[in-house]
Amino acid sequence: PLFGKRILVTRSRQQASALSKLLLEAGAQPIEAPAIEIRPLDDFAQLDQRIEYLSQYHWLAFTSANGVDAFFSRLLQLGMDARALGASKVCAIGSATAAALDTRGIKADLVPEVFTSEGVVNAMSQVDIKEQGFLLLRADIGTDTLRHGLASLGARVDEVAVYHTTQSRELDSDLRGMLE
């Protein structure tokens, strides 16, 4: 159905190939030009501290599949596994995040209908979360929307970066020409 269409794929290098494969199967010509790069943190001190005290949180909120990958990678490096999540409930901001959790044997307790921070806050407004502890596991450049929204519902919210996001290289001249 996409035969003859050129589609720019701006996902990170790690994620672009899966989408490009699907586009190829549909007849498109994918052009990969990652807009961001996902990298490990330079300093794990804050993340390690939060991991050490996971049991104090009622909810762990994962904001991306990248965050799931980075969190579990660090958990394993610390000699731990999914059992460290204990009795905490798990929120996934969307279906891809829930699928990433599922591959690690974790079923998300909450996935909002709308896959945004606002969608999570709306879904949580249907649950009594007053005085419950939340740990937001996110990119280092995420917005404050989710933290503020959960706090407005009475939750105690901590957040920690689990990976670093940087802007990818400038567009090469061939790609720039195609876009123009």
3D architecture notes:
There is one protein chain. This protein is of the alpha/beta class. The protein has helices at 13-25, 45-52, 65-77, 95-102, 117-124, 145-152, 173-179; strands at residues 6-9, 29-32, 36-39, 59-62, 89-92, 133-139, 156-167. The strands form 2 sheets. It has a 5-stranded mixed β-sheet. β1, α1 (13-25) and β2 (29-32) form a beta-alpha-beta unit. The mean pLDDT is 91.
Quick structural summary:
This protein has 180 residues and is α/β, with parallel strands linked by helices.
Distinctive features:
single chain; 180 residues; alpha/beta; two-stranded parallel ribbon; 7 helices; 7 strands; globular
Largest sheet: 5 strands, mixed
| Helix-and-strand structural type | alpha/beta
Task: Note the run of SSEs as H and E.
Answer: EHEEHEHEHHEHEH
Count of helical regions: 7
Fraction of residues in H or I helices = 25-40%
| Proportion of residues in β-strands | 15-25%
**Count the strands?**
7
Give the topology, please.
Blueprint (H helix, E strand, L loop, with lengths): L5 E4 L3 H13 L3 E4 L3 E4 L5 H8 L6 E4 L2 H13 L11 E4 L2 H8 L14 H8 L8 E7 L5 H8 L3 E12 L5 H7 L1
